[in-house]
Structure formats: structure tokens, C-alpha cells
## 1
Amino acid sequence: MTVSILIFLPVISALAVLLFKNGATKHAALAFSVAELALAAIFLSRFVPDASIQFAVVAPWIPKLGIYFSAGIDGISMIMILLTNVLVPLIILTTYKHEYKNANAFYALILFMQAGMLVVFTALDGFLFYVGWEAALIPIYFICSLWGGVNRIKVTIKFFIYTFSGSLFMLVGIIYLYLLSPSKTFDLSAFTTTGVVDAHHQAWVFWAFFLAFAIKMPLFPFHTWQPDTYTEAPAAGTMMLSGIMLKMGIYGVIRWLIPIAPLGFQKYEGIVIVLAVIGIVYGSIIAFTQKDGKRLVAYSSIAHVGLIAAGIFGWTTMGLQGAMFQMLSHGINVVGLFFIWDIISSRLNTREVNELGGIAKVAPKFAIAFLIIVLGTVALPLTNGFIGEFMLLNSVFRYNVLLVVSAGSTMIFGAVYMLRMYKKVMQGETNALTAVFADISGSEKLVLGIICALVIIMGIYPQPILHISEAAVNNLVQTVNNKFVQVK
Amino acid sequence: MSTLIIISILPIILLYIGLYKGQKALLPVTIIGLLVALGFGISQWNNNAQPIYHGMMLFDNFSVVFSSVTIISTILIVFLSKDYFEKISSHIAEYYAIILFSLAGIIVMVSFYNLTMLFIGIEIMSVSLYILAGIKKSDFASNEAALKYFLMGAFSTGFLLFGITLIYGASGSFNLEAIRNFVVEHPHNIDPMFYTGVLLIIVGLCFKVGAAPFHFWTPDVYEGSPTLITAFMSTVVKTAGFAAFLRLFTACFAPISDFWVPVLLVITVITLFIGNITALYQQSFKRMLAFSSISHAGYLLFAVVALGASSANSVFVYATAYSIASIIAFGALILVQQQSGSDNFESFNGLSKKNPFLALVLTIAMLSLAGIPLTAGFIGKFFMFTGALNKYQVVLVILAVINAIISIFYYFRVIIAMYFNDADRAELVIPVYYKFVLGLSAIATILIGIYPGFISGLI
């Protein structure tokens, strides 16, 4: 059993979904994505949580150029696969109450994007990684610009150009590494071998990769595409972007950037960690001033991602473990929040926080779900957000106290604007608009129920998830640290 | 050799068929003739060819590969010309014949082993093209295109010929091997006349392939010519031009690359930027394709700048990818033009609603031209970048990356028009031939993009 089954099932599903007619498409898409989730569960059950790469597949692709279809799963990839395969069925389920034109194309694109992201999360060959990286971008571009809001065309082309530019520089970096590698290969393990890339080249390679990853996450100051795109995209597209796709950037840093260019990283660690912290502060402040609920969540996402990045750049085992856990939690929470706003805006046709109020009175179940997700987002202890943020802040603390103070206090600030949003939307008196708000039902209940359950279960008992990636993370930190020491 | 003979005799047969009013037989005879020629060409594969006719021609693998790709592209274009030429004029046998004469010149261009044959090949091709550009006799733009093309073409041929003469003067031979030996034997004391000759040849060839700053004829000629002829010029002719360029420089001038690489480097960078930036400002899809073809010439020049063992392969893959994508683009343009009478971007508005197939294949073509992964265009760019980085041309590659980003704007404009802009339009009727050619090209684009192994290992 190799990882290629996991990668190709969504591709086949995407093609199959195209054959369905409008009404049945969403059921077919859901069935396929649940099958993919079941497959992931089988992989998880057979997965041995040590540092090795498992279920590996190596098949010649363009052997003349040293390009192989080479992929495998270790603890770090496993978390990402779980994230992807848990969220995609949930996201498809959130679309059950929408009627999309050309629904079969819509769901096919989502499934195809899933395949692209799974390639990114498992690839061990630079060329394959790049192809997966772009293969995930094309579908989301079309999802956003075909089914998005009014300004979608301008916004999505900006998004596309931004991310495509970043990834082209990464491509140049990958080709450069290929030419440096003694056996002319795109294999990741050849790139990370000590001595293949000297310190001078590592500095360049570092920036080439960093640009691609920083744009994807997005890190300050490369974030300008993000709020517009999140706002204009259809709800499912926003969830795909914020829930899963931005983790491609974070994963790229862990798997590719730092192991390949440890010396470059060591040299520029200060700059990037400061950028990440600026992102936290900036995202939170802007989020505080937002009146549009979806935009508020978009900016808060910049802050959360900034914290994950800062924790990774602190480069401790705890920081990395925190990042793994927080990627999972952030994915779940942010999908929950965007779904909440999707429910509100599809019922009331507005996302203005100030126009709402008192929804808790008319929709108690909705209120409970909203509250749990908000609490998870602001990292209340015993919710999933807490574990990750605690570990990440710990990692930043080891790097610099001043930075952790600004990052940490901003997270408290984050709680303020999130809870303020909750208060304005849900509490107080109902007005003419919100009085008729119908409580959640059917598929909405199911999605929010699952998300709330995950928020609480992961918060109370995080150990099984931390255990999956622990050995791989330890090993990675060790290997890279050894390279640092050689310089000193 | 049999390929060349067949392609030379075929047009004469076609003219006779035309004479005896066998209009219906023209297309099948052309296609079958070309397929036979293709078959003979492929049978020459890997047979350790030696120069023939006193070192005039050499049908090696390089020649086989480039003959095949030009013949296949011509077949696709000929398929598209069903019912197209009939609308322009009644003498349709001549069109097929002239296209094939031009192709005969191209076969000579990719198989020459002597500078005279290069010159003869280019002339056979060019003279046919001058006629083709002006084939709409009563159309003002078509006449302008033909005249401009002829004047510019004659001018550049002069440069080329002058260069060839100077090289002959210095080295005493037209033969590629003899010239190479001359260069190798006199590493430090080559006559300045020889270098001047190399420069003039570069100028002449850059004219032919439409590289800046010798590109001024391209937009007007491409725009004025009938669209199908434009398709022929920007795919088959361009491929042949680069094959000849590469063949000459690999065979003769590789040892003195220190001299001419800086010159070509400047030309490449100018070509990339001029092509891309001007394409941004075009309102007409056809003119945009003309300028984008200039920028693609820039990418193709990468292979000459980073001359090496893999250059031929890079040009082959890039030219194939570019040709099939362009054929789709021009084919779609012909259909849209026939319906709306305009070749502006606006005439593509809302195409996806009524003609999802056409919109889809055109999208695939645009993604391929923009170099997005999982299409053939990406593989082409990937090879070009790899080759250039291999020669440490990092700055060149960075500039190319910037250009690739710029090109997204204008390629996506068509996609945006087709999918996201609404317009009331009637459904286009797509003839069967078009469906076949466009569908086949789109599938080939994706196949090469997903599994380039079967095409990239040829030479």
C-alpha cells in the first residue's frame, strides 16, 4: 500500500464527479471525500509513529532529468493528510444548502485541489512538490473567480499573480538545487545532504523558497492578497484556502525551507521571526477595526498564521510540535468561523457586525456552536487552540522575550475582538433583521457538531495527535541543529 | 531524403488536381501525402546518417525530429483549413500547394549541412510565405502584410547572405564541418571578417524568427495575413527558424560562444520584455498572440544562449508545446472571428456558456502558453530554465520569471472574458474537423504536461 492511492483517489473522484447531474453531484462528491477520509484512516491505523518515511512510492517520471514520482508519509505529513482529508468532507457538507451553477465542475475542482494539496504534503521530489503546489492553485483560482462575489475577477487575478510569482522563484530555487546536487536529482534527501549547498548559496535558496511560502501563508508584508480573496471567494473556497491551502506554506517551511537551507535560515532567522511577529500585531489591530465579519476572520487568520510561523522560526521541538497541532486546530476553527459567517450571510444577506444582534435568543444551538468555536479560536484552556498556542509562544520565548511579549499580548487582544464580535452578533436585543433568524438544521447541525466536538476533544486530550508527529519532529530538529553546530 | 522529395512532388500533384477541378480530393491527398512523408521521415530514425550530396544535407535525428514536428503541425493546420480557403477565393489548390512548398523549404532548413542549403531553404520558405500573406487579394490589410513581409524579409535575407559570404571569405568553405574545423584550428587568430559574418547571420536569423529589435514586421504581418496563415507562420515557421538557428550555432560557432553569447543575451532580454509588455496593451486577441509570439521567441533563444547537449531537446519540447497551443488559439480565433467579425478580447465574452468545449480547450492552450504546470508549456519553460541555469545565467532566468508573471495578465484576459464576463451570444457551430484538431491538441498538451518522458528523451 503506497501513498499514490491516497493521491490519485481524489483525481479519479474529480473526474467521476464531472459525470453526475446537478442534483446528485454533491452527494457523489461527499461520498468520494468520505471514502478518501476512510482511506486516510486506514493509513493512520497502519502508520508507525517513528521518524521513518512510510508508504513510500518511487516511480520514474522523467528519469533522464532525475525526476521521480517520489512521495511518502512521515509523522509531519500524516498530520497534514489528516487535516486535508477531515476538512474536505466537512467543507463539501457546508455547501449542501447552496445551489451552485455547474455544480459538477465546482465539486470536481475541489476534489482536484485536494489531490494537489496531498501531493504537496507527501512529495519527496522537488519537481513533484512544485507541480502539486501549482496543481492546487489552478482549481482554487477557478473556484474563486467562477463562484465568487462581485469584485472576484480583479481580486482573484491579484491572488493568482501573487502566488504564482512566489512559486516561480521557488521553481528557480529548485532547479538551482538540482544543478548543485552531485547526482543531478530532484530528491529532497539529496538537497538536504550536508555540503551539497554551501552557505552562500543557501542564503539565495532560502529567499527563493521563503518568498513562495511567505506569500502562501501569508506573512506580513506579502499578505495583501489575502483579505480581499477570502472576502470575495465563495464560502467553500475561503475554507479551502484558509483551512488547508495556507498550511502548504507552513508545511513547506518545515519540510523544505529549513532542512535545505539551515545556514541561510540561521543567518536570517531574526528578520523572518520579526516579520512573523509584526504580522501577528498588524493582523490583530486591523481585525479589531473590521466591520465585515468575514474580513475580521480573514485578518485574525493573518495573526494566527503569524504565530505559527514565529513558533517554527524559533526552531525548537516544542515550537514545531505546537505548529503541527495548531495547523490542525486552526484549520478546524477557521473553517468553523467561516461557516458561521456563511450561515449568517446566506440567511440575512449581510455580514456587517453592527447590523446584527440578539441571534442567540432565536437560535440557541447556533449560539452554542458559535461560542465553542470562538473560544477555540481565542485559545481558552481545554480547547484545541490553547495547546498549540502555548507551545508556539514557548518556542518564541526561547528566542526573544520582547517578541514573545508582543506576540502574547496580541493574542490576548485577539480574544477581545473575537469575543466582542460574538457579543455584537449574538447577544443583546434582536432587531428587525435578526428576529427571524432560523436555527441551524440538517447538514449545518452536523458540520458544526463535528467541529465543536473536535475543538473540545482535541483540547482535552491532545496526546494522540502530538504523538503522531513527535518522533519525526524530534528527528528533524536534531538533524538541522547538528548542521547549525557545525558552523559555530 | 524521401520526405523532402514527397513534400516537393505533392504540391505539383495538387496543382494538377486543382486544374482538373478535383476540389474535394485536395484535402485528403494533402493529408495522406504528408502522412506518408512523415512515415518516411520517422523511418530514418537512428540510422547513423551521413552527409549526402557532397555534404549538402544531413538527415540526422535532429532533422527527423524537427521535420516530424513541423509536418504534424502542418497537418493540423491543413485540417483547420477545410472550408476556410473556399471563403477567401476560388483557387484553393494553390493554397495547399504553396503551404507545401513552404514546408519543403522548412525541411531543407532543418536538414542543411551547408550554408548554401540554409540560404536556399530559407528562401523557398520565405517566398511561399510572401504569397500566402497576401493571399486575400482584395483585402487591404493582407496586401500590406505581404508587402511589408516581403520588404523586411528581402532585407534580412541580404544580411544573412552577406554574413554567409564573409564566413566563406574567412574560412574558405560553406560546409558546416569545414567551418567548425576552421574555428577549432584557429582558436585565437580568426579573421575579424569571420566575427562580422557571425553577427550578420545573427541579425538575419533574428529577423526571420521575429526576435527584438528585429521584430517590427511581426505584428502587422501577423495581423494582416489570413488567420490560418498567421497560425502557420507563428508555429511551423518559427519552429523551423529556431531549428536552423540551433543547428548552425551548434555545428559551427559553439567554440567561439564567448563572442556571440553576450550579443544574443541582450537580444533575448530585449525580446522578452518588448514582446510581453507590448502584448499587455493589445485590444485584439490576434495582435496579442503576435506579440506573445515575440516573447516566446525570447524563451526559445534561451536554448541558443545556453548552447549545450540538451539545447536541441529544449527547443523541440518548447516549440512543440508552443505550436500545439498556438494552433488551438488560432483555431478558436477563426471560429469566433467568423461569428462576430471581430478579433477583440470582447468577442470572447461569455463563450463558456454556449460553447463549453471551445472555452475549455482555449483555456488549456492559454495555461500552456503561460507555462502553468500540468501543461506542455510548463515543461518547455522548465527545460529552458534548467538549461540556462546550467550555464549560470541566473540573471537571465530571473528576468524570464518576471516576464512569465507579466504574461499571466494577458493570457488570463481571454480566460476571464470567456468564463467571467457575460454577453448575449449565439452558440458557435464547430465543424467536426475543428473539434478533432482542437481536441487532439488539447489532449496532447495535457499529456506532455503530465508525462513528458515520451517526448523529452528523443534527441
## 2
Amino acid sequence: MSVSDQQASPARLAIPELLIGVGLLACAGAVAWQTLAIPVSPLYSKVGPTVFPYITMAGMIVLSLLLILAAIRGGWQPEEEKETPTDWKAMGLVAAGLVANLVLIQPLGFTLASTVMFVLICFGFGSRHPLRDALLGLVLALAAYFGFAKALGVNIGAGLIENELNVLISAVFGGKGS
Amino acid sequence: MDTLSHLANGFAVAFTPTNLLWCLVGTTLGTAIGVLPGLGPALTIALLLPITYQVAPEASFILFAGIYYGAMYGGSTTSILLNTPGESATIVTALEGNRMARSGRGGAALATSAIGSFVAGTIGTLGVAFLAPTVVKYALKFGPAEYFSLMVLAFITVSAVLGSSSVRGLTSLFAGFVIGMIGVDLQTGQPRFTFGTAELLDGVDVIIVAVGLFAVGETLYMASRRYAGKDEIVPLKGSLYMTAAEWARSWKAWLRGAAIGFPIGAMPAGGAEIPTFLSYAIEKKLSKHKEEFGTVGAIEGVAGPEAANNASAAGVLVPMLTLGLPTSATAAIMLSAFQSYGINPGPLLLTTQANLVWGLIASLFIANVILVVLNLPLIGLWVRLLKIPAPQLYAGILVFATVGTYGISQSPIDLVILYLLGAAGFLMRRFDFPTAPVIIGMILGPLAETQFRRAMTIENGDWTVFFRHPLSLTLLTLAFIGLAGPHIWAWIEHRRRRGPEHVPGDA
């Protein structure tokens, strides 16, 4: 199973894989720091709340060292994955869409924030019809808001559009819709 | 006999109009998300978890089970027509199924896969109904030590034995443990891993983790890979009816697939990859039409693995319902739905929640019937779903991801955690770390910890208890063999071939 991984012909240090191993080691450090911060009552000293965190930490240290070792031996990425260039522009646009959603969801409400995100992600994936996407995003977000959220009884951030529509719906259905 | 009367009772629960409706909604939704690449049953059930606050447990589990089974049916359609396996279990279906579609026999491939799924799903569900009470009899004898060791075995099999690397699988599992420990320790009331923030006291919701890893991470990955080649949909040609020869070649493969899939799924190891690959290998060996494998596509190579996949999906429900032991990401999320109702899945579930369990099992039979109807005469509808362009599909997935996450507590902090997990999910996808062990680790980790501490408290802190109980020792030994066995084997092979001077390590 894992045996085929190490067959890289000339073993060269793989930087991305090394960073992942080091990152995991840092996570193990954070786990250690947080475990030390758990107050332990002497009553539970035998099998208290820190036993499992310590086991987890030990496991993470061993695993990160094994990952670093694998990285030094040339990493484990398959060739085709290494050769495909990362489309940073597309990823950046998707990330921008996510951040825009995060920033706008409180001031503008769910629907408008989601529409902005929808347009940016579509653009990132290569769609070149922002207006059509905006309309589609708006319809989908409204459907998600009224269908999904209302049906599940989940309360998601209402903004301008939602409030107007809620007022409209209560006016039409005599208050049952809200 | 007992099982039959319980089952009759279950059908009485499942045949109420509302529950039938839930089953119909679940199977339809399940087929749709199975067909759509990028959406899976784990993500969908996670997004629908809030429904557990609204409806009776029977209704939500019938819905979830319909989604679970439906996704299997839908996934094979995508594999056959698009050659993009939605999930690892349908990789094998794509091998022969897509070749059949390319040589104009897509209709027969879809038919054998749907009917095979029905046959195997029904056999598998029968297996659940008859095996579950037997497993419960043994499970009632389990103490905390045995439970803990069983969970260790499950941890090892889902993360280390299945998948491409045991180190990366275990890394995912341990990441899940850390996420699962965030929040207040239930036994002592101490906050753990909260970094001093109040938001983390309640822990991280499984919805956020599933959505982050499966929706946000997947979208980022697909965006980064946009130039890696586009898939084309093979137009559906040929009739949906199988010829007599095709029936003759299919039915044995269905039965063999079900016979392989169910037992492997029902083991506390789970996973649909091993049974599907095994079934494929067997069909290839037994087939009288070996020349069709890998060329024009052999119907046995679709029928067997599809049956194995569905039977093992049913098998996974056995440890889940009898031991509270989920062995797939979807089962882990269903377990958290049980917890949301305050129900503890375990050996007592079958007696204390008889209506729920038997209603669920009965609804699975009904779901299979609905699904074969949905997926054969209505196949054209699902093919149309495949034509949704990628930009709008992924953007839409993220809109629903936001609804599901932001709806939990209307806190932007949740969105920040979601995006961080999404970035982690992207890296995991990019560097070949499996994501399912994270979900299993975060749900099952705290349960394992509880059993561990319970066992230790009973024995006054003497950890040898895990090795003194024979059953517990056996389970731990099996776990050790699962972890170390392949490496020892590889090492012996290596020595035999190249001589003793070079010692390979583990990657």
C-alpha cells in the first residue's frame, strides 16, 4: 500500500511536503501548549482530561517526523499532480469570493453577500457572463434562504432584500409567511 | 422469526404517508447529489443536520438513509457517462462502465448497474435485518475495554489499512481527534483546546468540518486544477434494456458482488474500495469475455463492483446500528445525528429504539424500489443534471455551504473556521491525505476517550486491562497486524529480492 510511495528515483528534498511535515509538528506544539493549559483536578489525576491530548500529541509528533522523513526522501506526490500547474488566478478569485462573503454577510445580509460570492467564484472558474451569474446567484441565494433555511428552521442573516421580501410575504399571506 | 415480526413492525412505520414522502425526498435528493460531481452524501447529510431539531428521528433517518442509498445509484451514472468517479467506491465502475458507454452500450451499463444495485442493496438490507440482532447479542457482553479496543481497530482500518498511505491516513485521523477534543470535557467540565475563546467552548460543529473539507476544500482544489483537462459527457446511446445474453452475464456477477461487499462492509473496517476492487478482479478472472475488459467494456466489470459497492454500503449500517461504530464519513455524520436526538447508538438501540431502527431498515427496502424506478425510466433527467456547467455548480455549492454554516449561530467566526478548514481540505486533497478519517476521528475520538477513561476508572488506572481481557487483546492484536503487517510483509519481500543491505523506511 504505502510501499510504492518511496520509489522516487533520485531522492531529492521535497519542499512542499517538508513544509507540511513541519506544519504538523507545529500543530503538535500547539496541542502541547493547550494541553498544559488544561487545569487538572487531583481527583481525576489518574485518567483525567489530559491523557488523550497527550496521546494525540505524541502520535502527531511521530507522524510529523515520518512525514518529514518522507519529504527528505523525495516526497510522495504523484508525478501528474506535480506536473499540473496550479491555477493561482482561479484560486485567488474563489478565495476573494469567500472573503467577500465573510465581510459582507453582516452589513448586507446573506442574499447579497452570497450573490457577490457566486459571481466571483463563477468568474474564477472561467464564466464570462457576470450579469447572468449575478441574476442566477440572486435566485439561488433566495431559494436557499427561503427554501432551505426556512424549511430547516435555520435563522440566517437577513439583510435588505430578505426583510423586504419577508414584509411582502407577510402582507400577502397575512403573516403566516414570516 | 423475531426479526420478521420486527421487520413487519418496521414496515408499518415506514409505510405511513409522511415517512414514504421523506423516503422519496431522500432518494431523489440522494440520486441528484450522487450524479453531481463535487457533492457527496456526507456533505449533504451534514448540511441537512439541522433538520434533526424539526422532525421526529424516524423521519430524519429515513431521509438520510434515502440520501445515502440514492448517492450510490447516482454516483454510478456519473462514473459511466462522465468517467469522473464521484467517490472512491465508483472508480471501478468507471473503468468498464465508461468504456461500455463509449462503445455505444451505455444503456446496458446503466441498466446493469441500477438493477445490480437494487439486487445487492436488497440482499445487503436483508443482511442488516438478520445480522444486526446477532451482533447485538455479542455486543451486549462488551465492556468499556472491549469497546475501546474495537474503536482502535476501526481507527486503524479506516485510516491506515485503506487508502494509499498509513502515515497520511493516520495524520488525518489525529487531526480529527484534535478537532473532536475542542470544547468542554464532558467528564470534568474543563475547557480544552479553546485558545481562551468563548466561541470554541461548544466545540466545532461537524457541519462546519464536513462543509469545510468537502465543499470549500473541493471547490478550491477544482479551481486550482481547471486546466487539468475537461471531461466530456458520453451521450447516452442504445436501449436501456439488457439483452438475454447481458442478463445472463450480469446476474451471477450481482450475486457474487453482493456476497463480497456485504461481509466486508459489515466488518468494523468498512470501506467500499476493497470489495469493489476485489469483485472486479474476480469478475475479470471468471469472465468468458476477457477480451472485452479494458477495450469495449465488459458488463460483468460493471455489474459485480456496483453490486459490491451497494452491498457494502448496507453492511456499514451493521456496526453503525449495533455498536455505534461508524466506518465511513457518512456513517459518522449519521451518528452525530443520533447524538443530536440524545440517542446513543449501541447494542441497546435495537430494543430501546425498535421503531426507529426497524422503520429505518424497512425504509431501506422501499428506498431500493424507488431508486431503481428513479434511475432507470427517469435516467434522462439525471443525465441532464450532468450538463450543469462547473462554474455555476461550484458557486452554488458554496452558497449552500454558507447557509449551512452561517445558520448554526450567525457568527462570522464560524465562517472563518470554515474557510480555514477549507484551506486545510485543499492541502489535503492536493497532497493526497484522505479526508474521511478526519470526520471519523472527530466523531469517534471522543467516544473512544470516554470508553478508555471508563475502563481505566473501573480498573483503578491499571492500563493492562486492555491486554488482560482476551477479546480486547485480540482486537488490539488485529489492529497491530493491520498497521504493521503490510510493512513487515513489504520488508520481507524487499529483503528477499534485493538482499539485506538496504532497509526501506515507511512513507
